[in-house]
Amino acid sequence: MKIFKFGGASLKDADNILNVVNIIQNYANTKKLLVVVSAMGKTTNAIEAILKNYWGNENYEQNIVALEKYHFDVAHQLQQKNAFKEEDFEDLKRVFLELRLDLQHWQRHAHKEMVYDQIVSYGEIISSRLVFAVLKNKEVSIEWLDARKVIRTDATWREGRVDWEQTSRNIQYLRPILQEKTIITQGFIGRTAEGHTTTLGREGSDYTGAIFAAALSAESQTIWKDVAGVLNADPKQFEFATLFDKLSYEESASLTYYGASVIHPKTIAPLRQAGIPLLVKSFLQPQDVGTYIGEIPNQEDLRAVIVKEKQVWLAFRPTTWQYLREEEVAEILTTCSGLALKVNLICKGAFILNILTEDRPEKLALLANRFSFQQDKNCTLVTKMGMKDFGNLWDKSKGKVLLELKEPDFQQFVVQF
Ligand code: ASP
Ligand code: MG
After folding, report:
1. Which atom of ligand 1 is nearest to the CA of 206?
2. Strand, coil or helix: what is 163?
3. Residue whose CA is closest, atom 5 of ligand 1?
4. Measured in angstroms, how far is the CA atom of residue 39 from the centroid of ligand 1?
5. Where are the domains of the chain?
């Protein structure tokens, strides 16, 4: 049994969806398969924009209409290719009606993070219903699963923590179904014990794939991307970028930690624990092998350059003339952890503590309620691994270097633009 995960880019238009369906069809005829999809194209961002207007008491209906049009246009194109039927439109209409009703229902609810999850999850519901319809029309023996029925999380909104035991138990009922049919479900979403929808963190669908893979002891998980696999740098920024044909779990986890966005960072641990390989392949060139990630020895000299953008450099200084104590550092870090604010680099001096975090203004505002600190925005963390013949590839003159860390084969710098 295999797990396939398709992200937003692979589902962004009718042609891409037909390509995805083709990949699924080629496989589903002969093997057991569970498919995880995320929202189509930039839908999650579009729903975030709906919420911004909704909370700002602006007209959000126009945003819904645009999102609806995008999905219906894709559906009409699929219909022209005999892949979408008149009755399938009813299903889509119903989901958009539910979205509107839910927005009305939660209007006066004060807990925005909670409402965020109830609404943003619609992106995945819509895409999975749409792709399900196409698969059904192509006569794939397919069943649609609401992932929230099985993925149990706590109530950490926007970053739901998975209850592995309960989730794994819930997933077992799928085993006999998978003997007969392919299952299609959503990435990124789960449900609390009280029945509220949660999300697992932006780009979290890869992680959902890993949860299903582990619970079902899958033979592998494949993440289908618009790139050839895991590269050692972003090809848009670095000409030398090349594909890794193999990586160990540890190497791939390090790369994602430093910011390689090709795989969601939470994906590797559950696969590693269950000993399930992860394949990262191109949905445009499905016959190519891509990158294999598994239980293999680390390479002698792993070389990569990883650029992590949208960071902020925080500077905490003691309020009185004294050294910054470890207790204060611990308190600051504990607060970051409580806010689920990701800390990517720490540097302590006599009278200063610098922390590089992701730029999440709402969380930083909460942090500022407790501590005073200075913020340098628009920062980027550049990590170079295995420096040997990489030369001087990051043009420092483009920005101001706030920190540089040098080890023989590992270098990091924080650059502000
Ligand atoms: N649709 C969600 C997002 O864009 C989850 C995902 O793509 O994995 O963050
Ligand atoms: Mg997405």
Report:
1. 8
2. coil
3. 203
4. 6
5. 2-218, 304-416
Tell how far the Cα of 205 is from the centroid of ligand 1, in angstroms: 6
pLDDT, tens digit, 9 for 90 and up, residues 193-204: 999 999 999 999
Expressed in angstroms and rounded, the spacing between residue 37 Cα and the centre of ligand 2 is: 9
| Per-position DSSP letters for 61-95, written without gaps between them | HHHHHHHHHHHHHHHHHHHHTTSS-HHHHHHHHHH
Least distant ligand from the CA of 267 = 1
Q: Which CATH number fits domain 304-416: 3.40.47.10, 3.30.2130.10, 2.40.128.20, 3.40.50.740?
A: 3.30.2130.10
- Residue ID of nearest Cα to ligand 1 atom 2: 203
CA distance 164 to 232: 32
Q: What is the mean pLDDT of residues 113-138?
A: 97
pLDDT for 238 equals: 83
Q: Which atom of ligand 1 lies nearest, measured to the CA of 123? A: 1
Q: Are 124 and 188 in contact (CB under 8 A)?
A: yes
Lowest mean pLDDT among 37-46, 221-230, 366-375, 394-403: 394-403
Superfamily of domain 2-218: Acetylglutamate kinase-like (3.40.1160.10)
pTM across the whole model: 0.91
3-state secondary structure 207-228: HHHHHHHHHCCCCEEEEEECCC
| Smallest CA separation from ligand 1 atom 6, residue | 203
Whether the Cβ atoms of residue 103 and residue 83 lie closer than 8 Å to each other: no
